[in-house]
Amino acid sequence: MSLTMYSASVPIFLRTLGHIGKWLDKAEAHAQAKKFDIGVLLGTRLSPDMLPFTRQVQMTSDAAKFGAARLAGIESPKFDDVETTLPELRERIAKTVAFLESIPAEKIVGSDDRDVTIPRRDGPLTLKGEVYLRTFVLPNFYFHTNMIYALLRHNGVELGKSDYLGPLGA
Predict the structure, then answer these.
(1) What is the mean pLDDT of each run of 10 residues along the chain (170 residues)?
(2) Which domains does the chain have, with CATH numbers?
(3) Which of 51, 55, 56, 73 is nearest to 132 (CA)?
């Protein structure tokens, strides 16, 4: 199978969101073992001017759903960004996964040369699909994924590289 805009996006998002779900399980187990309220971890930051853990999960979800939707030329579901608990974050991930799984591959395949417009505070930015995926969507998705991982590791959750990468070849 050759690399397509679909295979370079949706399966990657789904795989990584699955990993994040497992990280949340480990975070919950860590909090229970150490006897602290998981809510403390959900509000943590690496720096005072950094967005907290819950917002990192929300933004990872947004990068995946908005990225895939824009490449497919469809509307993305809107989530209210009100998650404050672990079950709510899990539900956010599940809703993101369900949306991604609903997008037919044919809607994204061939989007490399399609114009994609990103709404921004300083005005819309239009990029070709492939440039949008390579320079905006994937870097944003992985940035927020990395922040989730770093925040959990920083707070003692036992995660390693294999948790980040998952099973290879799958």
Answers:
(1) 91 98 97 93 94 98 98 96 96 98 96 94 96 98 98 96 88
(2) 10-156 (1.20.120.450)
(3) 73
